[in-house]
Amino acid sequence: MGHLGQALILKPYLVGRDPLDIEGIMESIRPFADHGRLNVEAAIRLGQYMSTPAYNLAYIEDPINYRARNTINLNRMITEGSPTPTLNGEDIHGFKGFRPFIEAGAVDIIHPDIETSGGLRETKRIADYAYLYGIKIMFHHAGSPVGAMAGVHCACTLRDFISMENHAMDIPWWDDLVIGIEKPIIKDGHYTVPEKPGLGIELDDEVVKKYLREPKYLYKAGYFEPTPEFDKPIGWQEAIDKGVIGGWYNHGGPWIHLDENENLVNRADRR
Hints:
The chain is an alpha/beta fold. 27% of the residues lie in helices and 12% in strands.
């Protein structure tokens, strides 16, 4: 699928499908509208249109970005006016960040990513607070099996949990990064929750080292090397200017990785 007038993305990305072929997509899976650049009126109209029996989308995601001016009120207006559920929050950090969305009823479903929302305890705190307001929870996830297992364990403690995204299914060696767990890690769309201590997995150091984005594609080579540059607060732009972080996050598609032939996939021309 792709952008519809720079307004939304329809998922899943089904090869060969016309972005407007909603009926065709529905033959395969219940999709949702994702990451829009809409105003309130357009988002409500989208929610109304996609709620009809022919489409019946699971949700519309981020119709207005969480960082937009007056975002709480704008998202609340959309949520109140859209018969299709709304979802937001994959980039929001911490309880403080989610709290105004929850208390204002700005979304029907919150969408934290446990690797950036504050970890196990903070994410559970966010989800439990949302439950008090009748707001359900989904997890965003775009990372390694370690983060995925953290999400799985956290999800087991939550009420009104729906599902967890995964953006690594097209990476052939994703499962190989860890050991001590049944493979494939995701089977028929489901995880098996490990019963071993901790997260129930261990890193396979040799595999991880094989697929490190280094030394050419990282600012610093090494495996768990010291990072004193993060001992003091550093701004986003300053980190980019110093080369501490790059710009790969802007390029969409699969996360930058080496495919089975050790070709770099989705490399940005400039880091």
